[in-house]
Amino acid sequence: MAQNRARFEEALERGHSYGWDQRWEDAIREFEKALQEFSNEPAPYAGLGMAFFELKRYEPALDNYKKAARLSQGDIMYLQRVAQLQEQLQRNKEASQTYLAIGEVQLRRRLLNEAVENWNRAVFIDPDALRGHQRLAQVYQKQGMIPAAVREYLAIARILQAQGDADKAMQACRAALQLDSRNADVLTAIELLQQGDSLATHFSEDAGAITLTPSRMTTGLLDDTVLAQDGSSPAQEAQRIAMERLAEVFFGDDEDEDVTTTMKDALIVQALDFQTRGMTNEAISAYEKAIEAGARDMAVRYNLGLLYQDKLRFSDAIAQFEVAVQDPDYRLGSHFALGECYRARGHIERALEHFVTVLRIVDLKTVKRDQADRLIELYENLTQSFRTKGEPERATAFANTLVEFLSHKGWEDKVKEARRRLDTISADQTMILGDVITAGSEHVLESLYLSQEYAKREMYNAAAEEAYRAIQLSPNYLPAHLQLGDLLVLQKRHEAAALKFNTIGDAFRARGDVNGSVLAYERVIEVAPLDLTSRARLIDLLKSMGNFDRALENYLSMGNMYYQLAQVDKARATFQEALNIAQRGSPEKNWRIRLLNQIADIDMQRLDWQRALASYRELRRLSPDDERTAITLIDLYYKVNQPKSALKELSDYMIQLIKGGKSAKVVGILEDMVKQRAHDPNLTNMLARLYIQQKRPQKAIDLLDKLGEAQLEAGNTEQAIATIEIILSLNPPNSASYRQLVSQLRQNV
After folding, report:
1. 3-state class of 587 per DSSP?
2. Eight-class DSSP state of 584
3. Residue 648 contacts by C-beta under 8 Å, 6 or more apart in sequence?
4. For residues 306 and 466, what is the distance between their CA atoms, to the nearest angstrom?
5. What is the C-alpha separation between 89 and 99, in angstroms, rounded?
6. Mean pLDDT, the chain, as a whole number?
7. CA 337 to chain centre
8. Contacts by 620-627, CB closer than 8 A, 24 or more apart
């Protein structure tokens, strides 16, 4: 039988019409008729997919949508339905592959944001979707979204290791390390790979981030050292542990040991004996021979490093300590000893790196876990300040003070007391033990402590005097300036406080302390919300940190401030700028929807229908269940003279309501539409058709009658005749009158 395009189109139209009326079996029959005419067209298969889906026959629905997607050469709409059905049928790996394919299509069309959304969906439903993680890693890296890129590389490493490819897993970790060389998760992942431990055990599947198990928590940064208990320095305490560990060799059970092991242990015992007797050269020789015999205990390395240091063989000592530092028991002591060795060789900057690390490890034992990240950053800034300022005298003084602080008996108690005092002074900011040294004088901290105490008693003048005294003693010590700013706020001198916090923010930024700068600028806008310049700086810093949620919150506040100041253009421009990074914020905060609503409201108030239309079309896609958005979009189509688009949007929304079990709303919405546009025959016919379906023919007749009258008054005779004929098809009580009217009208045409 020859193919007939007309029969194909008619069957297709009837199928869609039956779909509108939810007569799905009839719709299936018509779509199948269409396929008899043209079996290589995607539309009938898509129609069958929709009908089977509504009948909850998901398998045939999926098959037909697959055919539609194939025949349309990868139409995204059909592919999305395929993916959704695969998820419905819990075929997550297949669905993930489909979402990956959708992302690739969108990427070719330069729709990067949409591609990323689909790749994210792919890895969400199948955390082992390697290609999805690879794509996301590439995109995030190019966009400078470092934390997100690192997360994806860690997920790639987890998957590759599970596939048995440890080398490529390590390559993924190295790629992450190039992006963030201090990332604790990456360093831990590398450590796990090197040890042959499974990354999957320590990774959460949904985020790629490392989650340490309780057994490994004791070797993490917060618990990686045993603080001295006998008043010795960190290096001496580590030596005590090493000596005790090696002494166990002497008492070990060696019945089953081979000759090599027995020789190695004998050398260790001999070295330990020489060391305790002060025979340094002999001890060094015995330890070296033990290492050659295969001794791997870090206690051997650490003790040998100390002996090399005693003999001023600093290069050899450094080599041993750099090995021993990997062991948690010797980490603190090794860093301390490395600092001493580098200082002895005149490499003050390298020495300071290790000394500051010692202080950081010790300090981390004294703070709460939620303070750890900020504390680590402050120590990094402290180390960086010594690298960049080129002040050797200051660096040497810091090193000498630090070594003296940690080398005296009772330094552990000093640490606890210093932390207590710092916590009292710092209030809502984090301070580090390094502040005890960088403040330049104990009197600075004493003045700040007194300032806090006076402020608690509302003795603000006395508190300010102590803050000024601290600043006079150490002009560059920013915590003293922060204290003064807080006092200005308490005195309600908001303008002066804002100026002070602004200056502090600029100083933090110049030092490279982004977090400190953020905290200062946040205080500016707390006391001076209309300081939009500071808020703009704050937004830029938050974006540079990757903290897009806080940046977007400030964008919203800034836009609203401009609006309140009647600077509507700037308000809209601010919301639009925020929209460009909205996809980087947390999905659950719905940033794109919130910002589009702000922009659309401004355009609506300005009667700028075209720009408002663009926003509402996007909002309709993002919030398909929002009735206000749907109705407004339909109204906007009418306002811009696109009635066909308005009717299509209305029809789609009606179908959506019916499918969602909200059929009762349909009549009310259509009635409101007809009231607003009583002369629109399409709207009236749609409502009349609905009345007929509900077996309310008289309502339909009354409605059509009014339309006919309006058409006659407007001189649209032919349209009026068509309307009256529809009325006649409903068998009205006064059919004769209508027929007579039709006859008269035809005579006048």
Report:
1. helix
2. G
3. none
4. 46
5. 15
6. 78
7. 40
8. 620/649, 622/590, 622/592, 622/593, 622/596, 623/593, 624/656, 625/660, 627/665
In this structure, are residues 578 and 590 in contact, taking their beta carbons and an 8 Å threshold?
no
Encoded tokens for 323: 């090995």
Please give the Cα distance from 521 to 544 (Å, whole number). 15
Q: Which CATH architecture has domain 5-212?
A: Alpha Horseshoe (1.25)
Contact 161/193 with Cβ under 8 angstroms?
A: yes
Query: Hey, do 5-212 and 663-749 end up sharing a CATH topology, with the first three levels equal?
Result: yes
pLDDT, tens digit (0-9, with 9 covering 90-100), for 23-73: 888 888 888 888 888 888 888 888 888 888 888 888 888 888 888 888 877
Q: What is the mean pLDDT of residues 356-372?
A: 71
Give ∠ CA 239-244-250 in degrees, rounded to 5: 130
> Could you identify the residue written with the tokens 């700040």?
448
Calpha distance 433→455 (Å, rounded): 23
**Rounded Cα–Cα distance for residues 612 and 37 (Å):** 43
Question: Which tokens go with 240?
Answer: 């005590």
CA-CA-CA-CA dihedral for 108, 113, 119, 122, to nearest 10:
-120
Give the pLDDT confidence of 429-455 residue by residue, as tens digits.
566 666 555 555 556 767 777 887 788
Distance from C-alpha of 196 to C-alpha of 213, rounded to nearest angstrom: 16
Cα 102 versus chain centre, distance: 22
| 34, burial (CB in 10 Å: exposed 0-12, middle 13-18, buried 19+) | buried
Q: Is 256 exposed, middle or buried (0-12, 13-18, 19+ CB in 10 A)?
A: exposed
Options 3.40.50, 1.25.40, 2.60.40, 3.40.390; CATH of 663-749? 1.25.40
Q: What is the DSSP letter of 203?
A: B
Neighbours of 386 (CB within 10 A): 21
If one counts every other C-beta atom within 10 angstroms of the C-beta of residue 665, the result is 14
Is residue 16 classed exposed, middle or buried when 0-12, 13-18 and 19+ CB atoms within 10 A define those classes? middle
